[in-house]
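Notes to self after the call with IL:
- keep both proteins in one doc
- input above output, always
- annotate only the second one for now

Protein 1:
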Amino acid sequence: MSQTEFNDPLWRQGISGAQMLFVAFGALVLMPLITGMDPNVALFTAGIGTLLFQLVTKRQVPVFLASSFAFIAPILAAKGEFGLPAVMGGVIAAGLVYILLSALVKLRGPSFIDRLLPPVVIAPVIISIGLALSPVAVNMAMGKAGDGSIELVPYSTAMMISMPALITTLLVAVLGRGIFRLVPILAGIAVGCAIAAVLGVIDTSAVEQAAWLAVPAFVTPELHWGAILYMVPVALAPAIEHIGGVVAIGNVTGKNFVKKPGLHRTLLGDGLATSAAGLFGGPPNTTYAEVTGAVMLTKSYNPKIMTWAAVFAIALAFIGKFGVALQSIPVPVMGGILCLLFGSIAVVGLNTLIRHQVDLSEARNLIIVSVTLVFGIGGMVIGGKEFALSGISLCAISALLLNLVLPGGAGWKKRDAEEA
């Protein structure tokens, strides 16, 4: 990495920062739209979270933090049962999990994470997250609410919107060139909204009435143990993905970020970013692989670029019409794209099993993966009215406990973080 890359003029840094936000934008706003949060708040907390991450890591790692899809299922479940303020309390607690892991890594070294959360634990949890959400994607693609309770758009009209949106996303992801290949979600949204406008599905009256400048709809968090139990176990999976993201950006830039500034600092930064998001009413934050791809493509290694991206995200958060326009995106548009995204989450889990050569003919591994998948996808509930674990939270805890209790497991693969 040459010194000249750190001495770019401010205008060039600003342009590169806007480009990074553009790459992250589709996934950044889609997640809050799915979960019923304010996309302007998500923009604000993505910006604040990225700035906090840069502060903790001494502005050495060129990553952008924004909405995490891993938390969609527990957010939907906890929101329906306890309300959005309680969900925000759970998001704060999820950030504390990162902070705790950061302290453990500082004390015990990165290899500790591999022993506590090996691939055989994390992979089935990630698979469960993706597959448990698949009914939500299908219902939305067919014009229904995520839970299938009501029809929002007639079926035939919805399919005429959702399938072109899905196909566009697929084609851009596979056939796109240059920076365009990194924005398949935005391309799918654009095509889907264009078709929806032609079919008269989009209502722009709310956009016309909205103010140009407005304070985002921040939410004051509430602490509720039920919501916290939904959120905290799920934080284990994205914490592991965080490690992979740090290693990936290190490979792109030629730097060993696991050693300097240190994995404990990057985990701490991610944890503070997530807890800060909960304080304002935004979704949990995570590092974005799309932005890492953009860094590799453009060779924009200067971490100051992410400062600009964060500032632009915060500025956009206060444009009222912008947020209302995002909320007017029709359900079938989001559903079509989510058919790919939720499936992709499951594939990440499958790839984790394959990449780490987890032997599923070994009884121990087979038991952990099997029970975790059935609990997570099948909707197992353990407990009563006052205290209950279910869904992704239950499957994450089950995988962790089975790994700790069952004998064996000496053949864990060394993670990249340990080798670095």
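Protein 2 (the one to annotate):
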Amino acid sequence: MEHLAPLISQAAQIAIEEGGEAITEDVLREAASFLDT
């Protein structure tokens, strides 16, 4: 569960910045790629 917290936090930040109302699969993928770097 502790590994999901950074992913979900990053995904939420991306969704907010992009004006989205939900964390979608695309947003999760973008967050995962950001965290991999």
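Annotation: The helical segments are 4-17, 25-36. Residues 4-36 form one domain.
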